[in-house]
């Protein structure tokens, strides 16, 4: 007996913003604590990147242990593939959309925008991509209290932990008594290289898995037909966008007063 109520999962590995980077995903899945976790929760932006088909295949092969939440980039891939979007968020998204099989497009389209689990040490946890009410809203580690009031509007009182992704920077903070956790990005980190993720229950353990980035870059160049893959991989796998760059770029989008122009034009969420 493990002492947990029936149906309550144990430790949960949270992976967000994989963005189609297969070597980074493989490195995280090889982590002993991920292999031992009772659940793996994906908090969106799974496939929009250089190896979308392979990433979706690998994750689906993990079976029912993996729980999926859609992100804005997953929604955009479906829209691009179905001819519903003519303006693209970045150059690699049309390439990624073309790589998906029809079955994978339908699968991504079927994913929920949020889910809840009861996790030891946290109670009822809501997992989403950006905020509980929207897949593109920006909240940051330094977002003002009034912003959290806005994004928590309508949330059930018994949800005391919210896990989100979207901004590719890991943090854990309290906001109006709720714990907010962002695991960072597996495939496109901002701030420092490595594949970022989180182990949840009973505590909150932000993790980063180092992997061989030069080898991963060479592999992407060899295996991906996207024309600018060398530049894309060199920039994103090496986390050329610093945390300061990303906060400057995203900050005005959480409703704060703009004080300067973004330091980088390439930050993706």
Oligomeric status: single chain
Q: Please report which band the strand proportion falls in: under 5%, 5-15%, 15-25%, 25-35%, 35-45% or over 45%.
A: 15-25%
Helical segment tally?
A: 10
- What is the H/E string? EHHEHEHHHEEHEEEEEHHH
Structure description:
With 269 residues, this protein is α/β, with parallel strands linked by helices. Strands 3-2-1-9-10 form a five-stranded mixed beta sheet. It has a five-stranded mixed beta sheet with strand order 4-5-6-8-7, covered by helices on one side. Helix 7 links the parallel strand 5 and strand 6. The longest helix is centred in the C-terminal third of the chain and has 11 residues. The radius of gyration is 18 Å and the shape is globular. The N terminus is likely disordered.
Name a few traits of the molecule.
alpha/beta; 19% strand; globular; disordered N terminus
List the helices and strands and how they pair.
Layout: E1 12-15, H1 22-29, H2 32-36, E2 39-43, H3 52-60, E3 66-69, H4 72-81, H5 92-99, H6 102-109, E4 114-119, E5 123-128, H7 145-151, E6 159-163, E7 171-175, E8 178-182, E9 195-200, E10 204-209, H8 213-223, H9 229-236, H10 243-250
Parallel strand pairs: 1-2, 2-3, 5-6, 6-8
Antiparallel strand pairs: 1-9, 4-5, 7-8, 9-10
């Amino acid at each position: 007996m493990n002492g947990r109520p029936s149906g309550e999962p144990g430790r949960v590995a949270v992976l967000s913003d994989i963005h189609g980077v297969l070597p980074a995903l493989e490195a995280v899945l090889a982590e002993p604590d991920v292999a031992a976790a009772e659940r793996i929760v994906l908090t969106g932006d799974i496939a929009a990147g250089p190896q979308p088909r392979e990433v979706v295949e690998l994750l689906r092969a993990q079976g029912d242990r993996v729980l999926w939440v859609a992100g804005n980039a997953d929604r955009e891939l479906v829209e691009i593939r179905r001819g519903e979007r003519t303006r693209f968020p970045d150059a690699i998204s049309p390439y990624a959309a073309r790589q998906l099989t029809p079955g994978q497009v339908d699968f991504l389209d079927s994913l929920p925008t949020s889910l809840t689990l009861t996790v030891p040490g946290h109670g009822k946890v809501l997992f989403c991509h950006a905020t509980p009410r929207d897949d593109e809203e920006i909240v940051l580690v330094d977002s003002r209290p009034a912003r959290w009031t806005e994004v928590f509007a309508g949330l059930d009182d018994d949800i005391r932990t919210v896990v989100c992704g979207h901004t590719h920077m890991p943090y854990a903070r309290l906001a109006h008594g709720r714990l907010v956790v962002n695991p960072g990005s597996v495939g496109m980190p901002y701030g420092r290289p490595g594949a970022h993720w989180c182990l949840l229950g009973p505590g909150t353990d932000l993790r980063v898995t180092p992997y061989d980035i030069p080898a991963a870059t060479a592999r992407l160049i060899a295996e991906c037909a996207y024309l600018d893959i060398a530049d894309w991989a060199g920039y994103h796998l090496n986390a050329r966008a610093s945390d300061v760059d990303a906060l400057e770029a995203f900050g005005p989008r959480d409703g704060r007063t703009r004080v300067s122009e973004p330091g980088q034009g390439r930050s993706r969420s």
